[in-house]
Amino acid sequence: MPSRLRQSRVVLAVLASVVLGASAAGCSSGSGLPERDPDVTATIARTTDAAVLTDADDPYYEGMSLADDLPVVGGDGAAATVAGLVDGDRVRVWIGGSCAESWPVLCEIVGVELVE
Where residue 30 falls among pLDDT bands split at 50, 70, 90? Predict the structure, then answer.
């Protein structure tokens, strides 16, 4: 009986690995961006210490700041960082998990794309 239980556990572990691997593979494209619609599209406004989202298509994200070291994928697929964004740049932003209910909202950002 212990041998059968051990076999069942191994089979379950293998199945879980396959399912999780397939899920992770579908989470992002070759660009590193999630393969789903962005959570918000907005315009960048630079302040002295951050890039802030303005004119957001979802008001919930209005005023959210992006850390300067956050990676950005350019419209041509080139890699950049938020520090290279300037006033007026349009970006698409993907959020992961939940956001802290504050103003401005604080979220885990999993992808930023410069719209050209």
Answer: low
Say which residues have a Cβ less than 8 Å from residue 57's Cβ, sequence separation at least 6: 40, 41, 42
Q: Domain residue spans in the chain?
A: 1-29, 40-115
Most confident of 14-28, 45-59, 71-85: 45-59
Is there a contact between 42 and 52 (Cβ–Cβ < 8 Å)? no
Q: Is the CA virtual torsion 47, 50, 51, 55 positive or negative?
A: negative
pTM: 0.72
SS3 52: strand
pLDDT attached to residue 76: 82
Kindly report each contact of residues 50-53 with a partner whose C-beta sits within 8 Å and lies 24 or more positions away, as own/partner.
51/82, 51/83, 51/85, 52/104, 53/91, 53/93
List the one residue out of 24, 116, 52, 28 whose CA is nearest residue 78: 116
Which two structure tokens, joined as six digits, stand for 83? 């520090």
